[in-house]
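Lay summary. Proteins are chains of building blocks that fold into shapes, and those shapes determine what they do. In this project we predict the shape from the chain. Here is one chain we studied, written as its sequence of building blocks.
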Amino acid sequence: MLYDAVVVGAGPNGLAAAVVLAEAGCSTLVMEASETIGGGARTAELTLGGFRHDVCATAHPLGRGSPLFRRLPLAKYGLRWIHPPVALAHPLDSGEVVVLRRSIEETCEGLGVDAVRYRGRIEDIDRMWPRIEERILGPALGRGSDPLGMLKLAPFARPVSWDIRKFKGPAARSLLAGCAAHSVMPLGRLFTAGVGWLLLAAGHRYGWPFVSGGSQALVDALASHFSDLGGEIETGRRITDLAQLPPSRVVVADVAPGALIEMLGEDGSARMARAGRGFRHGPGVFKLDWALSRPVPWRDARMAMAGVLHLGGDHRQIALAERMVWRGRTPDRPFVVVAQPSRFDPSRAPGGGHTLWAYTHVPSKSPVDMRAAVEAEIERHAPGFSETVLACHTLPASEWESYNPNYVGGDIGGGALGVRRVLRGPFGGLSPYGTGADGVYLCSSSTPPGAGVHGMCGHHAAQAALGRIKSGWPASR
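And here is the predicted shape, written in a compact code that computers can read:
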């Protein structure tokens, strides 16, 4: 059989690409190496029976705000968003707790002297949101370029350290620094401001919600919709060479750039050097999941109301930790992202138990066990936490590729931020999703708009592939 399209990889971007292609009437096959679909959005019993943990992604500000997910009938297939009362809590060593709520006014109440400046910046971003969706959640150098719009979005490309200095108090500085640190970059690097402000603005607009039952429910809904459109999914089919695929007009790959180069074989050798210029993978993460007998005993009640928490001190400590990781060193006091979905979703754990999710940044491929350092940071704000632990599952950066080959060295974001990554894609062609190989497109988070469970990399890659299909070109292989 000749397919219009074959998609390699059933993560959120691969499934998003498959849905867009199937909606256009294309015969589409998805081939997934693992026995289960999901990629970075899987949910599994990692610790004890009945305790459901999100293996990678868990809170989804960009997923809830995704232009693609918003228009798809995913609720029909069981997708339900859960919004904690507080999106994010960030405790400081002084005892102060900074919170991000959907309400701008309620967030500003905790920012003191910086409330007016913060409100003004968030309201400016909110007014620009249609442009942001088009440019930041779209192909940055796509058709219909808007020079004025790009100019207005230019502040997103600067280092977040510039914006941090404009605030006077530790609350606003630390809130912004913690969000920017999701870039896994030193805070003085380009594009870190965009990450910080985008997550804050999305939090006000859409919240930082969890998926009821776990992130797996989101990809399951995508897969069900795809199947209803006539699409096919095969699991347990690892592809190491594109010659293993059935004939098709296009191939769309939800894989790391290096993996696609290997699949291209001799045809990819010339592209390997080109892909290496301006594209690099970032640091890794050390991931932890706990099964708990009861909720975390946070000292401050506002932390118990938060879906996500940033631990690790103020903006200066965060900046130090991220700089050390970038230089290949392991910080003694790491920046830690924590999520507690079971507080708001009882389906995550049995019998009144709870789950806790966390990760911290470490150098690429690091085998270092960070459990003690992370648990010490939690105990700092929740005395007695260790007494609630029933079991703990850890995954060091050195082992992430065994779980998902896309996570090179433990880099769960698809690559370090840079001009090539943000604007042009790893292969640097006219399309961020093109590879230079005839009829082969890349749709992983290594392409714009990058990391996050939003499906927009897949959406835009599929649109590029549709141009070829609709032109009536013959099969590429």
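What the prediction tells us: Residues 192-206 form the longest helix (15 residues).
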